[in-house]
Amino acid sequence: MPQRPRPHILEELSIRRFGDALPSAWAYRAQTPDYGIDGGVEIFEDAGPSTGLAFNIQLRATDKAAKADRVRLEIDELDYYRSLDLPTAVVRYCSITDDFYWQWASNIRSRVDIAEGQKTVTYRFGESERWTETTPDIIRRTLEVRRGLVALAPSAALPLRIDLDPLPQAARYAVDRAFAAAISASHGVLVRAGSDLLPVEISVRPEPAYLAVGIDTLTGVTFDLIEPAPEDYVTATLYALVRLLHRQRLARQAEAVAHLLIERGLPSREDSLGLSACQALARDLPALVRLAVINGFHDQSHINHGPIALTISQAPQGDEGRRAAMDAFFEASVAAARGSESNSEAAAHYSIGNFYRSQQGYARALSHYNRARRLRPAYWRAGYFSRDLGSILFLAGHYAGAVCGYREALRIDGTGEAELVFLFGDALMLSGAIDAARSAFEDAAARCTAPAMIEEAELKLMLCDWLVARHGVTVPRRRAEANAALRAGVADPTHLAALARDVDALHPELHFRLGVAGFQEGEREGALIHFLLSAFIDPGSETAWANAAISAMATGDEAMMLRILTIAIHHKGAEAYDKLRADLVGQDISDESLAALDATALAIIAEAERPATGGFTLRMLDGDDYHTMTIKGLGGA
Fold it and tell me: How far apart are CA 584 and CA 546, in angstroms?
């Protein structure tokens, strides 16, 4: 006779026993289907009416007594619980002991240390997290506090309930006066809690070498203090408050407490709390910079120097606000470095230049690179500096200068690294040295192992051959003259071709117009060349990439079309395919062909989006050597 699987029996048992552990007036409802939570609990008064309080349940059961006090959770799962409107309690049931442990998922998430790339975490419950007869009262109180926090007015004062009992009697008076002075100077942001328990209050418990700050059981911070003075307790409490309030999305209150720290010039003993306080000021960038400087984060050797720059770059401000804040932060960084030695100041300017390069501020980046070079002439002997200089000159459109930078980097490097040779080829091509560019692309294709780079090098070899056959080993590059002719209304294909031949052979708009004219006249292969040139000269043009792919399809060369699609996506991401797809749908492509193309494009997009993009490198002086830190994931500024 078939038997039911033990996991199903255990699940039903845990639900039944959990229901027994709840007050009779509380209602448990299973979640069907299970979208990451097992059910929900609604709290009713004994007399019948609902309190409006509710929470989610994630119930984990085990038959092993050795695992009764621990649970394994996925990081994504914990992050999902944090995104829900209702708080989630993680409950552990052991059928052997018939005991429950519990904790809010948000507290578990904040208490565990998670390494980069880690997928799961094991949380071990403490004895205080065992489910007892008083647990429902604790849960209800927490939910009432949470509701009070949601309803808290931005201008409402924050009551502090300070428990001085753990301190020696001799120390209590000074600590109490330090807190009283801080509360008095807080402009009404803080008040001392009275004898009655308030709907929302902050608990502060200083001990001889320890401090605990919390909001009920919702959230808390605990940390050690070494020989703390009375003011140290106050400072640590204020920094802890900023973190707790920010976690609870009480942005106004968090900012108000952070401003108290700025007014009093108080640095944090804990770097992580100092960083949290700065991040809570992301809506007030001048204040963020002031607090960062108070904490010494403007020193380029500080572990939080890079994260502060990242926070500023991603702040919800306009471009000018972000740039002004970054200028102020970096000016403080340079001033601090100037006080030590020229090499340190040079490294600061170099890091600042790298940041502005990541934000497309090429003129500013070049200015800081030049300052770094003057302060530390040894940069000229560093291959990475020549490479970075070549990169910024290329991005700024100074291709001849980029050629010099990349050539020097290759000379210093001596290994002929494939990517550097490829970049050198790009600079040569756009400077007009087509034959030399061809040699570089040929060399890069032979050395490279990355499929996308090999395909791009091969396409550029084809374009170099076409340019040499049409114009010779070097081509004219008089962009201003070509722009003037286009503004004057030159549109005839013959005149456009003459402009490309005699004035600027690498003008993206010229080649785009020639591609359109050629396609309309049935010259599909010629159109393909012109659109490809336009796209490679201006990789940001989604239309040029789409037209190049359509031209390849029109010639019947499916392999060429897929090669162009791959390169376009690596340059422009999914937007490149979105444009091509919209054009093809407008041309009545068949559903079958569109489905096949979608599948191919999605695979290419997934591959292209896998590596992290963006960021900038900080170079920090450590004795005679430099350490580097690359900051990833920058927002545009």
Answer: 9
Give the residue from 484, 487, 528, 478 showing the smallest Cα distance to 507: 478
Q: Can you tell me the distance from the alpha carbon of 282 to that of 588, in angstroms, rounded to the nearest whole number? A: 48
Beta strands at 616-622 and 625-631: parallel, antiparallel or unpaired:
antiparallel
pLDDT band per the 50, 70, 90 thresholds, residue 2: low
pLDDT digits (tens, 9 = 90+) for 183-214: 998 888 899 998 777 778 899 999 999 999 98
Upstream peptide bond of 23 is cis (omega within 30 degrees of 0)? no
First to last CA, the chain: 68
User: Comparing 492 with 615, which gets the higher pLDDT?
Assistant: 492
558: burial class by Cβ within 10 Å (0-12, 13-18, 19+)?
exposed
Provide DSSP, 431-485: HTBHHHHHHHHHHHHHH---HHHHHHHHHHHHHHHHHHHHH-SB--B-HHHHHHH
Residue 580 burial (10 A CB sphere; 0-12, 13-18, 19+): buried
pTM passes above 0.70: no
The mean pLDDT of 240-248, rounded to a whole number, is 90
Distances (CA, A) of 375 to 213, 347, 368, 379, 555: 47, 9, 11, 9, 56
The model's pLDDT over 226-240, given as tens digits with 9 standing for 90+, comes to 899 999 999 999 999
The C-alpha angle with vertex 171 and arms to 170 and 172, in degrees rounded to 5, equals 100
DSSP state of 22: S
| Position 273 pLDDT exceeds 80 | yes
Quote the CA–CA distance of 254 and 316 in Å, as a whole number. 16
The alpha carbon dihedral of 579, 580, 586, 591 has a sign of negative
Kindly list the structural domains of the chain, giving each domain's residue range(s) and its CATH number in brackets, ordered by start.
6-135 (3.40.1350.10), 152-280 (no CATH)
- Residue 636 pLDDT class (50, 70, 90 cuts): very low
Which helix (DSSP H) or strand (DSSP E) does residue 41 occupy?
strand 39-44
CA angle, 399 then 403 then 407, to 5°: 165
Cβ–Cβ < 8 Å for 189, 157: yes
Distance CA(532)–CA(549), nearest Å, equals 9
Supply the pLDDT for residue 57. 94
The predicted pLDDT at position 223 comes to 81
Q: Which residue is listed with tokens 């998430």?
A: 109
> If you search the block for the tokens 């027994």, which residue do you land on?
20
For the record, the structure tokens of 81 come out as 């619980």
Q: What pLDDT score was predicted for residue 430? A: 93
Cβ atoms of 201 and 193 closer than 8 Å = yes
Per the model's pLDDT, the better-predicted residue between 266 and 107 turns out to be 266
Residues for the chain: how many in total? 637
Pairing type for strands 27-30 and 88-94 reads: unpaired
Find out whether 141 and 216 touch, Cβ atoms under 8 Å.
Answer: yes
